[in-house]
Amino acid sequence: MVADANSYDAWFCAQVQAALEDARAGTSQVQVMQAAQALIDTKRQGQSKP
Questions:
Q1: Using one digit for the tens of pLDDT, what is the confidence trace for 1-50?
Q2: Within a domain: residue 1?
Q3: Domain tally, the chain
Q4: 17-to-5, 6, 11, 13, 47 alpha-carbon distances in Å
């Protein structure tokens, strides 16, 4: 079990480091919330039609 925990810890740390070093542009929280609201609005409009 300890070997599995150590192996997972090493893998997890490597994943975090890779994410921190990723130079690609991310998506801002504002963009995500705007897209979510647009989806909600679209779904609501579809439900209001008879």
A1: 677 999 999 999 999 999 999 999 889 999 999 999 999 999 999 886 65
A2: no
A3: 1
A4: 18, 16, 10, 6, 44
Question: Residue written as tokens 């779904």?
Answer: 43
CA distance 43 to 49: 11
Is 18 a domain residue? no
- At 13, list the tokens: 């740390």
Maximum separation of any 2 CA atoms in the chain, in Å: 60
The range of the structural domain enclosing residue 39 comes to 25-50
Buried b (16+ CB within 10 A) or exposed e, 16-37: eeeeeeeeeeeeeeeeeeeeee
Phi, psi at residue 12, to the nearest 5°?
Answer: -60, -45
